[in-house]
Design goal:
By secondary structure, this protein is mainly alpha-helical. It is built from six helices and four strands, in the order H-H-H-E-E-E-E-H-H-H. It has one domain. The longest helix has 23 residues. It is elongated and about 50 Å long.
């Protein structure tokens, strides 16, 4: 499981305050959309042998726990052993034909998280504007 640090949260927090009671739902929707974008990036670099690993990728709907929402991106299923092997072992131990690579999920998630707060802020503000339109 990769952990990312998101910077520039003050505008996002302000947007959540502006969203009021809809903030948890808007946050989860924005987070899910961000996960979908990171997933698309991962699909471009996930190693392909027979296609089972690539086809096993899923962006799960938000799971709520109180005011917290979590969105998971997973690979595995029938290819779970293969998924772990090619994700965790560098090219010297596993074969990765370009453009595929190891850390096929961690790398795009970390890359995509760089400007995530700004994109999520824009998404939440757009949801607020549509609510009042």
């Amino acid at each position: 499981m990769a952990t990312v640090t998101v910077k520039g949260l003050k505008p996002l927090i302000a947007a959540f305050y502006a969203a009021g009671r809809d903030a948890p739902r808007f946050a989860a929707k924005a987070l899910h959309e961000e996960a979908q974008e990171a997933f698309v990036l991962s699909q471009a670099i996930v190693p392909v042998d027979l296609g089972v690993l690539r086809a096993s990728g899923v962006v799960h709907p938000p799971v709520y726990s109180g005011t917290k929402a979590t969105v998971w991106i997973t690979y595995g299923g029938a290819a779970a052993d293969y998924a772990i092997y090619v994700h965790e072992f560098p090219p010297s131990r596993a074969r990765h034909a370009a453009p595929t690579r190891w850390k096929y999920l961690e790398y795009p998630v970390k890359l995509h998280s760089r400007d995530m707060a700004a994109r999520m802020t824009a998404r939440v503000l757009d949801m607020i504007n549509r609510r009042f339109a």
